[in-house]
Amino acid sequence: LFLVSLASADILVAVLVLPFSLANEVMGYWYFGGLWCSLYLALDVLLCTASIGHLCAISLDRYWAVTRATRLNLRRSPGRVKGMIGAVWAAAALVALPPLLRAQPGGQECQLSQETWYVLASCAASFFAPCLVMVAVYCRIYHLTARRTAALLNVHSPCPASAAKKGPGVGMLGWRRRSQHQSMSLCRQRLVRARERRFTVVLAVVMGAFVLCWFPFFF
């Protein structure tokens, strides 16, 4: 549900916003009238804010899945997830309301309000606040995962070998068992560490792509 709603927001940006932005850039003036200018600006803010809001909601859902797995599985339902998605769209609509209410003249320019209060409020609500939440949440998820990985490795660490030998045959058998146990433990440690590295890379790619794509514009 989260991914379908996120994809819908992104597809609508590509269909309803980007073609008119491209036409405006190529022609050098706004051709489509004052009414569509207001709708276009509102849709631009609404859909971009909703897209970022979905990423933030997904990060919170992942955090709760890590920290409250049992309770979350009992409480999670399609209705609850739809409520979170509805809250994301409602918050995005509030941010997009001023461009819709602000009448656009029928001239050749179509741009968002340059008033300081709206620029600061919309940038904070659309990007900087969700970005801080995502960074904090994913850092917390990483620390929890690293701590659990360390605990798992300690639990499965090989037992110290006994110094006593009861005979050549028993000693050789015990040595083989200890060797197999140590090999299995080493393999398990490598798998756990590889999984942790993979998880770290995924988080770095997600957050890095998010910040690189959006930070220059909002800055």
TrEMBL record:
It is a multi-pass membrane protein. Keywords: Cell membrane, G-protein coupled receptor, Membrane, Receptor, Transducer, Transmembrane, Transmembrane helix. This is ADRA2 protein. Residues 1-219 form the G-protein coupled receptors family 1 profile domain. InterPro entries: GPCR_Rhodpsn, GPCR_Rhodpsn_7TM. It holds the Pfam family 7tm_1. Belongs to the G-protein coupled receptor 1 family. Its main location: membrane. GO terms for cellular component: plasma membrane. GO terms for molecular function: alpha2-adrenergic receptor activity; epinephrine binding. The chain crosses the membrane at residues 39-60, 81-97, 117-139, 199-217. The keyword Membrane applies. It is found in: Cell membrane. The keyword Membrane applies.
